[in-house]
Amino acid sequence: MLQFSKFVAVRAALAILTLVLVSFIVFTLMEMVPGDCAERYVAFKNSQGSVITPEDIQIERVRLGLDQPYIQRWGSWIFNAFQGEFGDSCILRVNIAQLLGQKFWLSLGLCLSALLLAYAIAIPVGILAATSKNAVLNNSLRLVSYLGLALPNFLLALMIMLFSTVMFGNSLTGLFSKEFRDAAWSYDRFMDFLGHAWLPIFILGWSATAFAIQTVRALMSDEIGKLYVTAAAARGVSGRRLLMRYPARHALSPIINSLGFDLNRIFNELPIVALILTLTEAGSLLIEALARSNDQQLAGAIIFMLTASIVGINFITDVILALTDPRIRRSIVG
Amino acid sequence: MTDITNTQAAENQKLKEAYFTAGQGQLIWQRFKKNKSALVGAWVLIALILSGIFAPFLTPYDATIAGRDKDYLNGAPQIPQFWDDNGFSARPFIYTYERSRSIKSNFRWVTVVKTDLEDRRYVTFFAKGQEFKFLGMTFDRHLFGVDRGFIHIFGTDSTGKDIYSRTLTAINTSMAVGTIGVMIAFVMALAIGGIAGYYGGKIDAVLQMITDTVKTIPSIPLFMALAAFIPDTWSAEERFFFISMVLGLIGWTTLARRIRTHLLSERNQEYVLAAQLCGASSSHIIRRHLLPSFTSYIIVDLVISFPYMILSETALSFIGLGLKDPVNSLGVMLQNVTSADVLLNYQWYFIPVIFFIVLVLAFVFVGDGLRDAADPYSDSK
Which chain B residues have a beta carbon less than 8 Å from that of A144? Predict the structure, then answer.
């Protein structure tokens, strides 16, 4: 037990350290882009008709604290970020935590469901592919997983959407029907949400599934060849019992370990899928923040939150692995 | 009878000798040749790359606005044929298309195809066309053209640019972005992975920490964050180099990790110790002894990471943050298919999508084949 709590403590410390590093990288990148918040805000006011002088920019800078040294600003940014506070958006002038709040959790929910879907399909199919000697099955599975890479999600999303527009006259876009968009959460709204959410979840899960099948298949075929499986088979264990009790359990831990990176991959797809399906409630805010307004405060916050959730998943999977596998508990850092 | 067996035995012996004395490159090639899908992938890939490089010659028109056909906007593909009701022709021909639009047709283009004998446009080979520069020389011959008017075998887009010409040029651009990105990623991975793996210990721990951190940040949102701040005033070339650089600067982590792991296991081998005892410097050992020990793995990894670069470029261009319309890249071509109008009326916009999918698939097949071939234990499985 002591060993386990020590493991968790070290892992938590490492996760926080990673987040500090991430915040440094993100903060530095956001600093490096041309122009700062004060200039953008003042330029925005300028477009509204008021006349702005360089002095005004300077005053705005002082008000936003942009005249303080770099390290100090980073320090206060990271300190606030850990409390879930990212300050105000450059352009929209709204508190970022409020602006993102629900949207972020919805996006995260979509991505996690996609991940779940991917493995729910990949684990049985992958095991089947690893054990089956059927060449047709194996080759077609290989083709599917290659297509998962070559047929990008945005193309798939587009095809399905256009197809449904033409066939059913319903474009399947958005996450809510009109009447539920601003309503409070209720049973009806939740069902409406589910009715819309299956498409983004399916599309986000599509290439993740293809990758996951490859991983499961490779891990399983590595394990099946090992001596302990032969030994178990010699003792008379066979069929599904043999697969589940021996190689599958060994193959599982690398899979759990890589969940964080799978989530990373899904996050990569999210903004594009969101753009096509016009999920204004989720990832497309990112695109808006970035493409339309050059809002570095908001962009930084979004990237930080995405990365934080990946680090969080990595931490959770580490703990789960340590619970199930004593070897991992013993190696504290590795 | 015995003679035959003898010669066969001798031949077997020769084959065995050839196998045991073959260099690593030969062994990889031997194994690669056995993998049929990888071999097909390699041929397709070579064909696509060559057609990208020789695009100015293979395509009849300039891919930019200079090569537009202003009388054939959003025009359907014109397929050359050998015969019709007016009889057979040894030279392939297309018809003359006359298009008009007015209030009567609700301002949509109406195409009248003239199928008469005198309206045939014959395809000519090595036709004189617009001048282009290749390897510093100026040429004006194209692989094919027609004796009068224009030929568009993949149709035209909304500004009258030839989609066939654009597609081949786009392959070239996307490959160039990928190459620059992979090169930058490669150099960074070599430096960081090399240092981490060779020195080990604390340096390794710190560099691993940094690598893992960069790896955790989702790359497409980060690309978007960086690309969004490109000033509008930048030229197409500046944009192009910036995008390739960003792709490279974020894509190095996986390769760095592999190099580090390999170096960590290799640096305790006897031959490294021997070199150290001979007084060789660290950089000499890394360059002359350690890196050559896994060149093949590096090459394989580079091939595997190539499609990801192309996919990233496409994704960026697709959301409008990467390359933009006057430049022809596969991402820009894909962006053009996103409207319902295209799906319903102008399906030939999807032809570049096929090229894109085939290119990525070919890369993946070749990469997988190379990986299996470079693995010395793959035979035993």
Answer: none
Is B61 in a helix, a strand, or coil?
Answer: coil
Domain architecture of chain B: domains with CATH: 78-151 (no CATH), 166-380 (1.10.3720.10)
Contact B220, B315 (CB under 8 A): yes
pTM for this prediction: 0.78
Cα–Cα–Cα angle for A317, A319, A324, nearest 5°? 95
Instruction: Quote the tokens at residue B98.
Output: 């006359």
**CA pair distance A23, A28, nearest whole angstrom:** 8
Q: How confident is the model at residue A53 (pLDDT cuts 50, 70, 90)?
A: confident
Residue type for B300, please?
A: V
The count of structural domains within chain A is 2
Write out the two tokens for B191.
């430096």
Residue B159 to residue B168: CA distance in whole angstroms: 18
DSSP designation for B110: E
**Domain with A241 in it: what CATH number?**
1.10.3720.10
**Nearest-by-Cβ selection for A286 from B221, B337, B340:** B221
Q: Does one domain contain both A277 and A168?
A: yes
Task: Note whether residue A327 is domain-resident.
Answer: no
Q: Which of these, B323, B311, B305, lies nearest to B227 by C-alpha position? A: B323
B171 vs B34: CA distance, rounded Å:
28
CA A88 to chain centre: 24
For chain A, the residue count is: 334
If asked whether residues A34 and A152 sit together in one domain, one would say no
Query: What is the distance in angstroms between the Cα of A30 and the nearest Cα belonging to chain B?
Result: 8
Instruction: Look at A61-65, A174-178, A206-210, B28-32 and tell me which has the smallest mean pLDDT.
Output: A174-178
The helix/strand count (H/E) of chain A reads as 15, 0
Mean pLDDT check: name the lowest of A165-169, A283-287, B228-232, B370-374: A283-287
Tokens 């409390």 -> residue: A83
Residue type, A334: G
DSSP code of residue B156: B
Q: Count other Cβ atoms within 10 Å, centred on residue A14.
A: 18
Tell whether A149 is covered by a domain: yes
Does some domain include residue A157? yes
Q: d(Cα B16, Cα B20) in Å, to the nearest integer? A: 6
B319 touches chain A (CB under 8 A): yes
Question: A125 with A200, same domain?
Answer: yes
Is A68 inside any structural domain?
yes
Q: For residues B234 and B123, give the distance between their C-alpha atoms in angstroms, rounded to a whole number.
A: 41
Q: Chain A contact for B347, CB < 8 A?
A: no
Residue B16's Cβ-count burial label (10 Å; 0-12, 13-18, 19+) is exposed
- What domain range includes position A12? 2-81
- Give the nearest partner residue to A150 out of B222, B320, B364, using CB atoms: B364
Short-list B305, B179, B295, B311, CA closest to B252: B305
Determine, for residues A34 and B344 on separate chains, whether the beta-carbon distance falls below 8 Å. no
**B139 strand-pairing partners:** B132
In this prediction, residue B380 has a pLDDT band, given cuts at 50, 70 and 90, of very low
